[in-house]
Amino acid sequence: MTSPAPISLVLASASPARKKLLHAAGIDPSVVVSGVDEAAVLDAARTTYGELAAEDIALLLARAKAEDVAAQIDHAVIVGCDSVLELDGEVHGKPASAAEAVARWQRMRGTAGVLHTGHWVVDTRDSDLGGTGATLGATASTTVHFARLTDAEIEAYVASGEPLRVAGAFTLDGLGGPYVSAIEGDPSNVVGLSLPLLRELLGELGLLWHQLRASGIPT
Hints:
The chain is α/β, with parallel strands linked by helices. It has one domain: Alpha-Beta Complex (Maf protein), CATH 3.90.950. Strands 1, 2, 3, 4, 5, 6 and 7 form a seven-stranded mixed sheet that branches.
């Protein structure tokens, strides 16, 4: 019997944490970083729809990234993601400076925020190879409780440089892990990609997770 054609999964993100998550779950994606101007995408959406909820911002940017890469890549399944932190009704991405990261952590310590990650999937495979042409997505949200850090701990963490590289100015799987006291929801979502949600989205394309693992992609 003829083996099914390998399924190429493309991650439209430069995030090493997202790639590491997929790899640990048995999938080794190709990476193609989008050239999307996030500020322009958000400005255009706000002009049309007005102010956007945090979860809608994450989904909008994930879609823009996935569809930008999909326009360049044929015969693949493209996954775009974007994460934002909602804190006291305000939306935060990566801090623009060390001073901003320090100020944000001074607000975050001892409180809780919601980490929203938008996921968007585009299927550019040929129909005779099972492609659907679908473009679909959803947002996963996880509540994150932050520890009561001292000023010295905040300054040392920001000095490491990590908070400047990640949405929300913290990580769960890196140097920031000790500063997260609890989470409510999917932990992989906090890292940047909800594995359970991605499994569901791929299922809507008729793809099962184990098919991706068994399709010749190294693990």
